[in-house]
Amino acid sequence: MFSLCLTVLVSGILCGCTPGTDNDQVEKKKYSIYILGNEHREYIIQTDGFAAGNYKPETDGVKLNTDIIDRDVVIRDGFYYHLNGRNHILSKYVKTAGELKEVGTLEIRNFIVENYYWIARDTLLLTGLDQKTFTNSWYYKISVGDLKLVQSGLLPIPKPGHGFTSTSIGLTTMLDGKLFLGYTYHKQLDASNYTTSDTAYITSLSYPALKTLHTDKDTRSTYPGGDNTIQNYSFNDEAGNFYYMTCPGIALGNRTDLPTGIFRINKGADTLDRNYFFNISAAISNHAYGLWYIGNNKAIIRCERKDLYKDLNDHWDVAHFEFYVVDLLKQTKEKLNLPLDRGTRRECVIAEGDKVYIAVNSKTDGNYIWCYTPSTKSLVKGLQLSGDTDYIYRIDKNF
Q: Is-contact 292 300, C-beta < 8 A?
């Protein structure tokens, strides 16, 4: 189902630990790894490096309560932020040796997070929909140091019409002092099927007044971005130009007649660069999900293989995803020599300096963080996740 059906997700903590024990010592390692184990067990592991080693989540991580936790966490400066849709509490956590420990809370009622953006290091902007109708678009600006609400309100995104019944916000970013939002609309066709508008909307707003400045409508593709608490779909390059991917594949927009594409908003502009459109589906004959910048006008995309899966029911479990390095200016692509990957949407790429780390889930080759060096095109296995690991859900920088 599309993202608004997937984002009613919640988070929480494991059991409490006795204050003053070693289990209360906060871990402050460089990277965070979120693991899905067998029989729906989930874990968080922290590490200072991906180059080598072998971690087992059942011994090297903390086990999470799967009734109240999920992978749509926002991670920064060693803290984990998550909105629990059941009790309407945004919680702030730290990882200790024994648990994910709650250190702050803020009540936010009737709200589904679809996107987040860091306005400043201590200021988080959440955008999303009302939890009842999925038609009203809201924002919450939060000071994360003390977890206090700074500002909130309705966003000037039109409600769905013309037969469409719900909204998805797929992009939230600040460019040159203006807030940009990307969105589209959906409608349910029957109990198990839906469709998406053929139009992607990009609106620029004044900030902080949030008055509409301009709205672009584009029918070359649809569903701009996606739920970025699950997977990344956009970035700024070194020159300040903003790129984003559209996702009309069956796991998001479900408008497979339209191509996955990469679009650009040039630095200082209020509107799309109409002369730029990278047709990914034409290049790879498939759709893609996920876009990660690795520097020097190159990015990594994660592409499905429609010849290897039957339908959405086995889209998650069947190994069929490939990784490509794309040149954004030349609009060329090069496939990375990695095992076929599993899992429909994952946060699985980190670019850092001259290294790119790529998490791959393979039933035949094992679950590894691979280390890619763009300058030499070297690609080697790094850290292995074994033991109870079924999927590497996400890898993140903690700091």
A: yes
Mark out the alpha helices in 219-324 (DSSP H runs). 280-284
Q: Give me 371's structure tokens.
A: 């280390």
Residue 115's alpha-carbon distances to 3, 187, 194, 316, 385, in angstroms, are 11, 20, 21, 22, 28
Residue the block writes with tokens 């936790």: 69
Name the β-bridge partners of 217: 201
Q: How many CB atoms lie within 10 A of CB 130?
A: 16
- Tabulate helix, strand, coil % of the chain (nearest 5): 5, 50, 45
> Is pLDDT at 117 greater than 70 in this prediction?
yes
What is the three-class DSSP state of 214?
strand
The residue type at 278: F
Query: 184 with 195: CB under 8 angstroms?
Result: no
Nearest to 85 by CA among 95, 101, 70, 97: 70
Which three-class secondary structure state does DSSP give residue 301?
strand
Q: Supply φ then ψ for residue 24, to 5 degrees.
A: -85, -5
User: What pLDDT score does 23 carry?
Assistant: 62
Query: pLDDT tens across 150-173, in order?
Result: 999 999 999 999 999 999 999 999
DSSP letters, 51-108, are SS-EE-HHHHSEEE-TTT--S--EEETTEEEEEETTTTEEEEEEEBSS-EEEEEEEE-
Alpha helices in the chain (DSSP H): 3-6, 57-60, 280-284
Q: Look at strands 378-385 and 54-55 and give their pairing.
A: parallel
**Per-residue pLDDT at 2 exceeds 70:** no
Residue 281 DSSP code: H
pLDDT band at 66 (very low <50, low <70, confident <90, very high): confident
User: Which fold is adopted by the domain 3-397?
Assistant: Methylamine Dehydrogenase; Chain H (2.130.10)
> DSSP of 303-348, one letter per residue?
E--TTT--SGGGTTTS--BEEEEEETTTTEEEE---PPB--SS-B-
Q: Using CA of residue 259, residue 339, residue 73, residue 1, what is the dihedral sign? A: positive
From CA 325, how far away is CA 113, in angstroms rounded? 30
